[in-house]
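Issue 218. Parser rejects a valid record. Input:
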Amino acid sequence: MAALTPISRTPTSFYVPVVAAFGAVAGLFVGTAQGSGFLGMIIGAILLGVVAFGLTKMNLPEIPSRWVLAVVFAIAGFLLAGIPAGVIGALFGWFFGWLTFWLYEGRYRAKLAPYLSPGQVLWHYTFRVICGAVFVFLITPIIVVMPLSFNAENFFTFTPEMLRFDPDGYSLKHYRDFFSNPDWQQAVSNSVRIAPVATILSVGFGTLAAIGLSQPHVPFRRAIMAILISPMIVPLIISAAGMYFFYSRIGLQGTYWGVVLAHAALGIPFVIITVTATLVGFDRSLTRAAANMGANPVTTFFRIQMPLILPGVISGGLFAFITSFDEVVVVLFVGSAGQKTLPWQMFTGLREQISPTILAVATLLVGISICLLTVVELLRRRSERLRGMSPG
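Output the parser choked on:
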């Protein structure tokens, strides 16, 4: 009986318009797919507002209501555009059922400080919605590319067989082409030969520069820092053109070492920034104590300083590696056909032959990038623990 008593329920004038607003956003996407985004917004807002009002005023239990909404929306989506739309419809129905009761029962305030004003609560969730929208905007193109890499046809669009989840519409032939085509394998070989060497140079020079610029007695260190990180700020096409004219005069244009040095120059700023951030929390009394105990500067660096800043060094190295491995503009200027890297081969495939193998390569690169970024995050957390900035 207590579950049916409307204790601390939020007013209808609050939760119904909010659910209707979310329904308008969902209706925008559905209506756009059907040919009229504006009409979809209106229908979505009215439909979800009425659903939210009806579910709460009839005191229906939450879980069965969410299942009913999921089934109804799944059927509607299936009738509109087949199985994929049915799956999306089921997710929409479940989400809107949860959202209605989450707002109606006031659970949105459960984990917030009780003294927050309505405006502060609104900004708290608005900020998260904005961040989520930005994330979806950035991640959607990547999510679309990945299933397309399994297309059985040589198309860059979803075929009717793929939309029906027909096994005949999916294939690994683009992956087989990547691993068997000599052009793609030569490009991978070049990238593997260039990126690690460029990363080593970036880590070496970038770490030394960061340590030197962290010393307060270094003159003009702000100006030097601005110059060293300028490759991150200056448009890449300008840097590439400058490298081309410079390397052509000293005989490095079109050579292996020319590409390596160019990529190292692009990776050094990332190493400097990550190592400098690590050095912010470094206790310099440790190096002074080591010097008092008779350790020379080299021993102090490798035995005291390096283990503590190692997470920042590795993180910068990973960013430098990703920069070198994914870079295409500079290598087009300073490289030659013998240094055709994987991004260069992808660019050529888009411009000249429209090869769907690019989708398979892009999926593999996304997987590699996710693994590397996961390592970076783990190293960041380890660095914080070593510096006492987070619990062990």
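Fixed in the parser; the record now loads. The longest helix spans residues 62-104.
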